[in-house]
Design a protein that fits this description.
The complex is a heterodimer of chains A (445) and B (293). Chain A has helices spanning 124-133, 146-149, 174-181, 183-197, 211-221, 241-249, 269-280, 311-317, 358-361, 374-378, 385-393, 397-402, 413-417, 424-444, and strands at residues 24-26, 32-36, 46-47, 54-55, 60-63, 72-73, 78-87, 93-101, 160-165, 201-207, 227-232, 264-268, 287-293, 301-306, 325-330, 337-338, 352-357. With 445 residues, chain A is an alpha/beta fold. In chain A, α1 packs across α4, α3 (174-181) runs parallel beside α5 and α11 crosses α14. Chain B is an alpha+beta fold and 293 residues long. In chain B, the strands form four sheets. A two-stranded antiparallel ribbon of chain B has the order 1-4. Chain B has a two-stranded antiparallel sheet with strand order 2-3. In chain B, strands 5-8 form a two-stranded antiparallel sheet. In chain B, α2 packs across α3 (54-68) and α2 (33-41) packs antiparallel against α4 (80-91).
Chain lengths: 445, 293
């Protein structure tokens, strides 16, 4: 097998895909759902329901505000209890719709039949509109509103659609299970996106640690002209957009540019299923696959969860948090963030919940930089993390801008590889946000 | 034999002196002598509190402004009105009396009142912790306790109290340069007038959540009950309530200290001992006003 990968940097953390064998199972409905209105990148949705309103599964409860925003739909049926601020994973409160669950009544417009609908009847524009109405966002973790990606501006030429099935984060297995259990939907969803872009070629990139998924998709892709499967060498962060484009097409996205500028669009594999359901079955995005894992968690699982379900409920379904759990991580262990508590609800971006014990969770005490340059070798963006860290420490923002701190994608390779356990990413993130703020202020002038 | 070296070196020195003299003449920079005079009157701490790069930067700006006829908008926070008055005399300009200010911390979330429920092990900087999560105490508005303000204080007026986990400001050393106000990502530190006889009253909280929610993580939070607003003398009306948070306007406050006593969470602090309320007396005289016959 010819394995491709990106050329600069990268690390290979222990994979720990403990839940890979657990089939997707539907999680129980919550008693009360907390549905955040800002589950996507961009402006939060505006609530369009009021306290006491009856809603069904799939009812629109939040309308997208502005260009980069996404609609939010109810994931349960019942009565709106309140529209209030609810704590999210960071501990800050964000606006949310709280719904008391009564039964499980779906909107009649949603096609709940199990058979596969292969024929695509909609045209380009209708597909993009449908994605917008259904509130589809990238399910890989960045939650970028999907419809924005498919509105290709005049003059830009796209020739390839890349489906990101890399799942390079350790522990997470939700995309893996989707490929095994919903391969047909993945392929039809890919074809829908190809239609939306008007391209003839789509490549599904899968890392070599998922041979079963590569096998099943390669076999089934033969019925879908234009779609090929590309096996990739296991390397973190291959699931990052720019790294994946480099690995598959050997094209480099220049600093500050988008994949569109090199003629491609990248889409997560889990999102293709959501796209399939939105376009063919008229089902908005209100549920997703969430991996529940942890070395000491009694049962590992991949749940199909309604958005708004408290995470505690999922942990309880896996036998409860084992003693000595020090951190609950929302997302993968490399880029995910520790949650302040487990009562927070699942959002469209929750790809997994990892329970980490004390030994794995704590950072070592930072030492002095020994100038070993391991971080420089590991940075997939070709930056110099040790230097940007120092610039952030001494508030040298102009220098940090020259070192392209804004290009950092926060993959965490530098911090992972640092033998002195320096908080590199923490400081680089500060440099990145500050540089971006300075640039915004400058462009306003 | 010593003569040759003396003559040689003397000649070299002479030529160099002539060259230096000519260069100094040619590249002479005309500088306003007043800048030096003004700079001498400034404290020389180069704290940047005025917004200019160092004391000389401010001195240049003051002289420039003096040429335009008004130095009203410029001031040196640490030097205060004394320094500005002296500068005004040198430049022959009138300087308005400015009120001396002091930095005030507005968070009462000590270890005792707001126990830490989480552990943060990232880079020990408030600006970073602020973007990551709500804080170890869970309060989204309160002090993160990592001491960005202490780090930037150039006058040694702040230190971190290990017992409370909060920074402490020494009003005697604070020169009101405002560096800590800028450094705090949560805008907890406020610059307030020093007040007459150092009497100051302020709400020791910046939390904007509803009372019940705030009390869950901090027993010293302002719960927005409004008792202080009612207690404030009618003619003063210095306290306003907005977003579940009381704010005392230092310009209106007369520092009577009445609000300090009524606050149920002791979230209002004062620099002085507020007077104890008089014991409630029965008021026989006012019972049943006489109806006019």
């Amino acid at each position: 097998m010819d394995l491709k990968t990106f050329k600069i940097g990268g690390v290979h953390p222990p994979e720990n895909k403990l839940s890979a064998g657990a089939p997707i199972e539907a999680a129980a409905l919550p008693k009360r759902a907390f549905i955040h209105l800002g589950q996507h990148l961009g402006a939060p949705a505006k609530p369009i329901v009021q306290k006491g309103d009856k809603v069904r599964v799939g009812t629109l409860i939040g309308a997208g505000e502005g260009f980069i925003s996404a609609a939010v739909h109810s994931s349960v049926s019942g009565t709106v209890f309140a529209i209030d601020a609810v704590v999210d994973a960071s501990g800050y409160k964000r606006p949310a719709v709280i719904i008391d669950v009564e039964g499980d009544e779906w909107e009649p417009t949603i096609d709940r039949s199990p058979e596969l609908k292969k024929d695509i009847s909609l045209d380009k524009k209708a597909i993009v509109d449908r994605l917008k109405e259904a509130g589809i966002v990238g399910l890989g973790g960045a939650t970028f509103p999907a419809h924005v990606k498919y509105m290709v501006p005049e003059g830009k030429k796209v020739d390839t659609l890349i489906i990101n099935a890399v799942e390079c984060e350790p522990y997470l297995t939700s995309d893996h299970r989707v490929m095994l259990e919903r391969a047909d939907e993945v392929l039809v969803g890919t074809r829908i996106l190809m239609t939306a872009l008007g391209v003839e070629r789509a490549v599904i990139g899968i890392e070599a640690n998922k041979p079963d998924a590569i096998e099943i998709l390669s076999r089934k892709a033969k019925d879908h002209p234009g779609i090929t499967v590309q096996a990739l060498k296991v390397q973190y962060p291959q699931g990052a957009e720019k790294q994946l484009i480099k690995a598959i097409l050997n094209r480099e996205v220049p600093s500050g540019k988008l994949p569109l500028d090199v003629g491609c669009v990248v889409n997560n594999v889990g999102t293709t299923v959501a796209v399939y359901e939105a376009v063919q079955k008229n089902k908005p995005l209100f549920e997703r696959i969430v991996t529940l894992t942890g070395k000491k968690l009694p049962r590992k699982a991949n749940f199909l969860v309604r958005v708004g379900t408290p995470i505690t409920q999922l942990i309880d379904a896996c036998g409860g948090a084992p003693e000595g759990t020090a951190k609950f991580i929302n997302g993968g262990p490399m880029m995910g963030k520790a949650m302040v508590n487990t009562d927070i609800p699942v959002t469209k971006g929750t790809s997994g919940v990892i329970l980490v014990d004390e030994a794995d969770a704590r950072r070592n005490a930072p030492g002095a930089c020994i100038r070993c340059a391991k971080c420089v070798a590991a940075c997939p963006m070709g930056l110099e993390p040790y230097l940007i860290e120092k610039q952030a420490e001494y508030a040298l923002w102009e220098d940090a801008e020259k070192e392209d701190a804004a290009d950092c994608m926060e993959c965490g390779c530098c911090q992972f590889t640092c033998p002195a356990a320096r908080p590199l990413l923490d400081n680089i993130r500060l440099a990145k946000t500050t540089v971006m703020r300075i640039r915004r202020e400058r462009s306003k002038k | 034999m010593i003569l040759y070296p003396v003559i040689m070196l003397g000649a070299v020195a002479g030529i160099a002196a002539i060259l230096l003299f000519l260069t100094a003449k040619k590249f002479h920079v005309e500088e306003d002598p007043r800048i030096d005079k003004v700079a001498e009157l400034l404290p020389g701490a180069n704290c940047g509190g005025c917004g200019y790069p160092g004391c000389r930067g401010l001195a240049e700006a003051i002289v420039k402004a003096a040429d335009k006829g008004d130095i009203g908008g410029l001031s040196c926070p640490p030097g205060g009105s004394t320094a500005m008055k002296a500068i005004g005399e040198v430049l022959g300009m009138a300087v308005a009396e400015s009120e001396p200010m002091v930095a005030v911390l507005r968070c009462g979330g000590t270890h005792e009142k707001a126990p830490r429920t989480l552990k943060y092990d990232g880079a020990p900087k408030c600006v970073i912790a602020h973007t990551v999560f709500a804080g170890e105490k869970g309060c989204p508005n309160g002090c993160l306790g990592l001491g960005d303000c202490v780090t930037v204080c150039a006058f040694g007026a702040m230190y971190m109290d290990e017992k409370t986990g909060l920074p402490v400001i020494d009003p005697a050393k604070c020169v009101a340069c405002g560096a800590c106000v800028k450094a705090c990502p949560r805008k907890i530190i406020e610059m307030r007038p020093k007040g007459r006889k150092e009497r100051r009253v302020w709400v020791n909280c910046v939390n904007t959540e509803k009372g019940a929610a705030a009390m869950k993580y901090c027993k010293a939070a302002c719960i927005g009950c409004g008792k202080c607003v009612k207690e404030c003398p009618e003619k003063v009306q210095a306290i306003t309530l907005q977003n579940n948070l009381a704010y005392i306007d230092p310009k209106k406050c007369i520092a009577c200290g009445k609000c300090v006593l009524v606050c149920p969470t002791k979230a209002i602090l004062a620099t002085f001992e507020p007077p104890k309320p008089k014991p409630v007396e029965a008021k026989p005289a006012e019972a049943a006003p006489a109806t006019p016959a």
